[in-house]
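request received
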Amino acid sequence: MSRVYDIVGKVGDEQAFRQEIRDWLAEKIPAGWRARWQGVREEELKAEIVAWLEERRKVGLATPHWPREWGGPGLPFAYQIMVYEEFARADAPELDMYTISLFHTPATLFEHGTQEQKDKYLSGITQGTDIWCQGFSEPGAGSDLAALRTSARREGDHYVVNGQKIWSSSSMHARYCLLLARTDPNGKRKHDGISYFIMDMHSPGVEVRPIPQITGESEFAEIFLDDVKIPVANLIGAEGNGWNIAQSTLSTERGLLIFGAVERLAHSFGLDGREAKDTWMRDVQHRREYAALYAELQSIRLMIRQLLIELEANPDKASPTLPTYIKLTWGPFLQRYTEFLLRAEGLEALKWQPSIPGTGHSSRLRMNDFLKSYGWTIAGGSNEIMRNIVSERILGMPRG
Amino acid sequence: MSDDLDLGVLAGSFAEMLDAEWPREKAVAYARADHLYAEDLWQQMAALGWTALTVPEEYGGLGMGSAAVAALHGALGAAAAPVPMLGTTLAVELLLRAGNAAQQAAWLPGLADGSLRAAVAQPGDTVVAADGDAVSGSVANLLDAASANILFLRAVRGGKPAWIVLRSDAPGLSVERHALTDTTRTLGTVTLDGVALDGDALIVPADAAALDDALLRIAALAIAADAIGGGERVLAGTIEYMTVRQQFDRVIGSFQALKHRVADHQTALVAARGLVEYAAGLAADHPQALLMAISAKQHAARAVAEIARDCIQLHGGVGFTAEFFPHIYLKRAKVNEAIHGTRPVLLDRIADMLEAA
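response:
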């Protein structure tokens, strides 16, 4: 017999809030989801995710970090953090496919969208009906994103878009795309003349081709755009201001999104060591390596917490450098830790296994997690670009 | 007073004095001559109350905690200051944890005003048999023994772990000094030949293991902070050099192969500093206080030793000369790695703690 949960109503009493989430999670996390989701067909997976999103929506936690006016619970930031901590601790499934929808789209629309755009698009996200993708990178514009060449030409009440996008996660399932395209090819700097659009993925001329990945999945795809018409009403912000707006989109990756990923790993890190007490934790070399990695993991968790504290106090005054340090530390740490587990666990860890969606970077399928770690060292500005940023912009060393 | 004094202000005042009184030229010159410790600098520190930092107010101190310890040792590490502050920090902790009222009254005021300079044995140092009224034996490689005037040695009495506290000028006690490559500190071999144990000389802790842990925690925090301070300073100085040194008609700091190494060092320091500050801010009775302190020590000491090693390489030929500063930090970093728990020892302890969690 299910009881009625009032999680949001417990705000003000931290302990009661956490306890209510824990009770709710204990009852509602889809039983045996890891086994069931492993290698599942995409349509079944989508149904599972939508069902879990609906369960979360009933208690106001479909979008824990959204303000009340847009259908979120309006939680104080400290409570948002608690939600993600408790989700990680309970191993609640992540809403794969919905990452862009839940984080990047609101980060963009809350700040830069028109009232009409917010009214039209945000409810489709909380209902789980609309999946969003991001059309930023191109074959010739990866780390050098501002070099993008997809063009948008104004013709009357719409733009005509031609070009190609790549590395677009979940775009094969997406209804909408956050699209960057060049409206003015003659801008003074390459950052000028880029505009930001909402593109309906059902528009004629949009073709999506999934890309097989080294993990065996095809989680991202190429998008080919051939004379795609986008109504002028779908322009976000002013024409030519797309680069600045894209910074808002990307800033979301610096806060709760990375926090959730790291907390999830911290949880599985503890399990990994305890479960190995009769195997590799009996080997002095592996034991010491594990103990050394513990300090690194803690240092990353502390940096993220520091950033969250600063973001809560004043998003405009939060450290501009901390996100770069976090990215440069977290990705390589994840890669070395998952690689360590491969060595510690030997051939068993190298067996092919279908991946488990919803587990972030902590599926605990060792090879899958290791391979997936490149997502943090290459995507979102490769770490080589981050090293340029640290040395040139933060430390003031001259450009080469 | 407690830790409500702003730590940032405190750290700023430490740095300001050391920048003025112990600039890089002085550190380089000091490293090239024969010294026991920087006596003038020690006197100035004492006059400013730094040696009184953790001593309770009733003994003339400031009564501050481990966060302040980290701030002070971080500043001393940044300056590579040749002063035996670690001995004072550990001696105060030892006396507060296990000393009786008479022992506290006898020594805390002197530690606070800097007239006493302590050398405190590390884990693993020789244990002196102290069953009679006098002790004999030898303790090798006691850190800062030669510059100290009071020694805290590990002992055993009646089969129980204990500490003995001896003045360096006690009859029968002699200290033979060994120079370290790190000229900011020294080692000494202490020889005891029938040294009398007076009434206050013996400390018998109720829980010797708990005392060892408390001392390890404070030593780990002080050394980790020292390491971070040194790492930041040697990297900053290296970046400074890289922006003026020209080869192939450009400053070497514009070469990406070098810049990326610097970026990695900087990132490692930012991450490690956060860990050290967090560990230092935990109350001594926090369940993770020791785990975090020794995690911070093994991690910071290793990371900084590696950064200091690379800073000499980034300097090129001048980095190999005694006229430039980086070698001072490399040598100090290597000692930081070696004292109060080498990395394998600490990692084994951390693994034990993680398994028990």
